[in-house]
Amino acid sequence: MRGKNLRREVLKSLAATLFLPAAALAQQGAAGPVKLAMIEGLSGGNANGGEAVFRNLAWAVERVNERGGVRMRDGRRRPLQLDRYDSKGQIEEALSALRSALDDGAQFILQGNSSAVAAALVDAVNRHNEREPQRRVLFLNYSAVDPVLTNEKCSYWHFRFDAHADMRMTALMGVLKDDAQVKSVYLLGQDYSFGQGVLREARRQLGLLRPDVRIVGDELHPLLRIKDFAPYATKIKASGADAVVTGNFSNDLTLLVKAAREVGFEGKFYTFYGNALGAPAAIGDAGVGRVIAAADWLPNLPTAQSEAFYRAFRQRFPKPQDDYVHMRMQMMVEALAQALDRAGTMEPVAVAAQLERVTLDFYGQKGAMRAADHQFQQSLVVGVMDRQGAPGVKFDVEGSGYGFRVIRDIAPEQAQMPSSCRMVRPAA
């Protein structure tokens, strides 16, 4: 236990060293920091995804602190402080990390790289806030996209800044429905709430938009435990599928597309996360024109503001392996800073009331929080993989030589979907 606590303190100290502007503010007499606790898998099968999250959040926090932090009602400014807690991608570890973060005085919980973990955290935060109203916290979700989190399980204390899975699937299906080459698809996903939901929605939307398309495979596999996807790739090729639809991420996607290349599968991949974390490099030339990804933003979005944003990120993180920037994470931290400024306090009910009405225009990306279910409404894009230097592909991914050309840009009002949330709000 002592070793575990020591390791956590070392990681937190490492995080603190990144925010020199916050330290400078403290020396100038600013009030104590606003504590943000990132609970994420920083070891295990999705460690690369967790570290990518940390880089994004670190950069966003630095930007807020460089302009002076957030202003309270008394006129004093507070820096943001980002602490990191390793959940190892496991629910019990995440709940343990939440308890540690609460003991450390965290006021805002940040998590996203697992919908199963997010659901457990929503329940735990709800219970904590009911038991200890004087120590309430808010949960800001940047990547957990199971639709249930802003529908049946919606919570006043939870805000989601990523488009949920059904919204992303709708964006993908908007492209697939016009793809006359696709006559049959293989559905493959991770066996947990998110992966199950992706395949369920794929079946529903295919039935509505492309009833002529045959589903020749429909399969779930263990999450982040498969080391060799050759058996799956062999089945996909043997099925005669023209395309694979998958919500896989991290190693589960990279190893899948690599295995598909090695067995000679020549179909397309319709993905949620095929645009980074090793997938483009793994599939190589075989992915040109064949890997399609839906996202909240892509580096080759053809606007000057978008290019300026991406160049600023690459200047901050110049190593090719660090090249995975998330626009939504930047907007999440900007939204929190805006809400804190307007509330003038860190009291969670007051901050939540301001987060509910946040609107943002960040490097040309517009978004607004929907108060009814705390689902951020933003634009979505769909891109197709191509070689860097091809028309519309100025930037590659992770130094791979491949990038994503934007083929569809979906406005927030087109991307939004109805919600079944019945929000329970705290008493005044």
From TrEMBL:
It comes from the Bacteria. This is Candidate ABC type branched chain amino acid transport systems, periplasmic component. The keyword Glycoprotein does not apply. Residues 1-26 form the signal peptide. The keyword Signal applies. Keywords: Signal. It comes from Ramlibacter tataouinensis (strain ATCC BAA-407 / DSM 14655 / LMG 21543 / TTB310). PANTHER family: ABC TRANSPORTER SUBSTRATE-BINDING PROTEIN, LEUCINE-SPECIFIC-BINDING PROTEIN. Pfam families: Peripla_BP_6. InterPro entries: BCAA_transport, Leu-bd, Peripla_BP_I. Residues 33-389 form the Leucine-binding protein domain. Belongs to the leucine-binding protein family.
